[in-house]
Amino acid sequence: MVTLDQIQSYMREQLSQDEGKAVTVSGETLEDALEQASVELGLPMKRVEYEVLERGTRGMMGVGRKPFLILAYPTQQRTGDDAEESSPEIDLSLLAEEEVDSDRDGEVFVRLTPDGIMLKVTKPVGDGTKATERQAMEKLLERVDDGIDKGRVAKAVKLAQGEFIKVGDFEYDPSADASLSVELADNEMKAYLKAYPPGDGGADPSFEQIVSFLRMNGVVEGIDEETVQRFSDDPRYRDAVLVAVGTPAKNGPDAQVRYSFELDLSHVKLKETNGRVDFKELNLVQNVVQGQALARKEPAQRGEPGRTVGGRLLPANDGKDVELPIGKNVRLSEDGKTAIAEINGQVVISAGKISVEPVHVINGDVNLRTGNVLFLGTVLVKGNVDDGFTVKAAGNIEVMGNVGRSNLDAEGDIIVHQGVAGKNSGTIRCGRSLWSKFIENARVEAGDLVVVSDGIMSSTVLSDRKIICKGKRASIVGGQVKAVEEINAKSLGSVSGSETVLEVGYDPKRKEKLGAIEEKRDSCNHQLEDVKLNMSTIESLVKSGRPVSPEKKAYYQELKEKRVALEGEFKKIEREAEELREYLDGLKVSGRVSASGTVYPGVRVSIKDAYLEVRNEFKAVTFVSDKGIVKVTKYEETDEDVTVGRR
User: Fold this and answer.
1) What integer pLDDT is reported at residue 498 of this predicted model?
2) What is the per-residue pLDDT for 279?
3) CB neighbours (10 Å) of residue 568?
4) How many CB atoms lie within 10 A of CB 229?
5) If we measure between CA atoms, which residue out of 213, 224, 215, 217 comes closest to residue 246?
6) How many CA atoms lie within 13 A of 210 on its CB side?
7) CB 431: neighbour CB atoms within 10 A?
8) Predicted confidence (pLDDT) at residue 12 exceeds the cutoff of 80
9) Confidence category of residue 58, pLDDT binned at 50, 70, 90
10) In this structure, what are the phi and psi dihedrals at residue 211, rounded to the nearest 5 degrees?
């Protein structure tokens, strides 16, 4: 076992070889002493070696402090290959290994070079075990029988600098050096190195020798220098080692079209509402708006040629271009890479091209198969709209069959070829006009005309212009029918005296809104009165000198805050109601109600502020307002063109 005295003796030998260039310096710490030695020797600290002559101490409260005393001298200089081998380099692969495995034992590497026996010892990592002199000697003796300087081995093990240092000499015989061979595989895409151990007096191959050998044997591309370096540090004789990999050619990707809408609608996507799956919301219609990007082309890419390990070029193909498949109502952007919708509607792939259809056609009923329909154009239903389903369109809605207890909502016109049977909860709303064969037990709101051929029964119908029932059975029986300008039918009411309310001369929607606001105002006023009453009760207790509990005081403060909020809300509601009254009073429409056939008792007619309850049967009459009185005049035919599609 190497002793401390032997190491010190070795250091002194080195000192004598350095032409006696050494200094003895002191410092409060070891670092201070080394800095001073660096100055005196005129060398950077990494080129200074030292021996501690006296170890310093800090003392207690400044008492007993003792400086460090060291003998410092230059690091022995090497030339040629030795100098290159001992130059410090950062091995980035070690950092990666540390991230994967934080604990690693110190290792020992031995190389035989023309300059002598070389030893490298690495430090342990984390909780790894240090390499020992015994390990080093065992590995050295596997390669050589004698010529080992144990002192240098001990120093190398102690410092564990991770660099090769000379630890002995042997009689070098160049003819006995390790021999190398290389084999190409996989169509020259891989090169395997095989080395055979040196004979007596032979040396291991160096990194430079291996790389030079590979190049001389035609391996010029893809050499893995890290693998070669590891092989040089720790040769694996008689094993085939993969040392070079060629670069395969990469064909350029073809141009691709990225669609911004769903191409495969066979997989239904259901929505959840309050934790329950809504089977009516199938979302089968893909709406787009004008100017929306529908698809974008990613251009083809150039190929990347490869090379074999021998340097032979491997050609690559460039990607193929594709055209954006543009169909109806779709245009290309200026750069030709984006498909853009020209209109609102439904985006579809038709004959392999992207198109936007302004009309969404449902070839059958609106039911669980189709789900609810929401479309930014016109919807054509070739069947019925079943109970419980909704159809909404930014354009028109046309239903070839019947509409049940459903909701129809269109910004344009709604046409129902059969009729509407709302069953007391169906609703129809259109921004323009409604045409239907009949309306029964439904609510209808139209921004223009309501035109019915067979009649309106027990429904609430509101029109911003006219309600026309024109046909052999065109009657209005029961319910509330309200229009701004005119109501015209063949007969009004029924023989049984069903209550039928007909109102014209004002905006029915705004009047209905005014009624709702007045109800809200009355409710607010009622709450306000209750608050004031409760506050008055507590105030009476205080005035009478009776004790008031903290709970009642807190309650009184809550009532005060509620009163302020209710008074503010009441004023706001009152202002809104007043604005609606002013609007309704300012309407300059007189309005009229007409029947080409019979008006039965039980019909109530309101024209602006004039009111008439029909008690006698009338034939072919028109009701008008004259000075606040509803008058009965001769029947006047409507002058409205009620032809479907007149617009």
Assistant:
1) 84
2) 52
3) 10
4) 16
5) 224
6) 28
7) 18
8) no
9) low
10) -60, -40
> H-helix or E-strand containing 374?
strand 373-375
Q: Which long-range contacts (CB under 8 A, 24 or more apart) does 478-485 make?
A: 481/456, 482/508, 482/511, 482/512, 483/450, 483/508, 483/591, 484/508, 484/587, 484/589, 484/591, 485/589, 485/591, 485/592
Q: Which residues contact 526 (CB under 8 A, 6 or more apart)?
A: none
Identify the DSSP state of 449: E
Element (H, E) at 436: strand 434-436
- What confidence tier does 84 reach under pLDDT thresholds 50, 70, 90? very low
Residue 33 confidence class, pLDDT cut points 50, 70, 90: confident
Residues with Cβ within 8 Å of 630's Cβ and at least 6 positions away in sequence, in order, are: 605, 606, 607, 610, 611, 612, 623, 624
- The two beta strands, 179-185 and 190-196, are antiparallel
Q: Which two tokens stand for residue 560?
A: 């005060």
Position 579 scores a pLDDT of 81
Backbone phi, psi, residue 16, to 5°: -65, -30
Contact status, residue 172 vs residue 203, Cβ threshold 8 Å: yes
Q: Any idea which residue has 């344009």 for tokens?
A: 412
Joined together, the tokens standing for residue 13 give 């030998």
For residue 377, the model assigns a pLDDT of: 84
Counting every residue written for the chain, the total comes to: 647
Return the number of other C-beta atoms located less than 10 Å from residue 44's C-beta: 9
Domains of the chain, by residue range, sit at 4-74, 80-168, 174-245, 256-357, 515-575
601 versus 549: which is more confidently predicted? 601
Q: Which two tokens stand for residue 429?
A: 């709303």
The helix or strand, by DSSP H or E, that contains position 537, with its residue range, turns out to be helix 508-543
Which of the 8 DSSP states describes residue 205? P
Q: Is the entire prediction scored with pTM above 0.70?
A: no
Higher pLDDT, residue 463 or 57 = 463
